Amino acid sequence: MEMSQSKNGKKIVFSESSFNKIAQSLQALKKRSNAALCIFADANGYAVSFSGEAKEIDISSLSALAAGDFAATSEMARIISGEDKFRYLYHEGKEKNVYLCSVGDDYLIIVVFDKSVALGIVRAMTHHLSLKLEDLLAKLRQEAETASDFLDSQFRELLSAELDKSFGVK
Amino acid sequence: MFIDRLRDEVIFKIVYFGPGLGGKTTNLEYIYSHIDPRLRGNLISLKTKEDRTLYFDFLQVELGRIKGKKPRFHLYTIPGQAYYNFSRKIVLKGADAVVFVADSQKERVEDNLYALEDLEKKLIRQNSSLAAFPWIIQYNKRDLPNIEKVKNLQVQLNFLNVPSFEAIAIYGTGVFETLRGAIRMVISKLS
Fold this sequence. Notes:
Chain A is an alpha+beta fold. Chain A contains 4 helices and 7 strands.
């Protein structure tokens, strides 16, 4: 299961079946739109799941940048419309393009595709998926789960010791 | 914090906050260039032509698996300039700890205070506060001639007595101590 903090302070827990649903939806989006890579990430930039070629692309960095992209343009959204952020962002390159779509307040979809793919198809299919995922997220929203089950006291002690070893001063 | 039970990973978000030109990016640059390359990703730095942070810098560092679980740390800086106010709010969202990078120079006293006040306002909007949230202070630029004494900086900024670290980020002094301090702060809040 995956867990991340949502805007209202509650944590969404992705069961294995819901995680699989998301993964399958991303696969379907990738296949139908002919995109190179599709990522579902949270608004903090953590990649929850992805489908596609990840050899040349750093998924963590791309997800953080996509979340940052919404953050950077939020000031513009606020000035022109008073809204928190734009719903979609699109960047066109010479060979590859990236389309970003927010899913509710706390998640986003990132689609990387090359110039042979029509933007309209990516846009329509991503919009469709965002609505589907919003429904799924609404069902999953539940009371906060504590982190203590996953990160017990022994883990915390070992982590503290590992810090000195790996992040020591050279 | 993001817990990934399928991959047995836990990701913490640490945000370097503080006045513009205080050395937030320099901290990340030093960590990037002096940590074991196997433990870090790329340093993503978005700068303007004037070498100012455009909206944030991002660096992922990690530790080896502990009890089968991999801890990762996403380090972010926020842009110091006033007109990125709203962007700062969003970059701060979901942070597990904040490193407040203060500029030790006497002429930056007001800038430090303004940035700290800004941090507090943003935490309050997230239903938290400086008193409740895990944060630490780094007094940077200790090598410069016209600097405030640490005891004065403590009175001005550290009224909550959070852990503080002296640093010369450009030479790496205090940089890893600060990072470890921030992570320990996160860990202590988990229990």
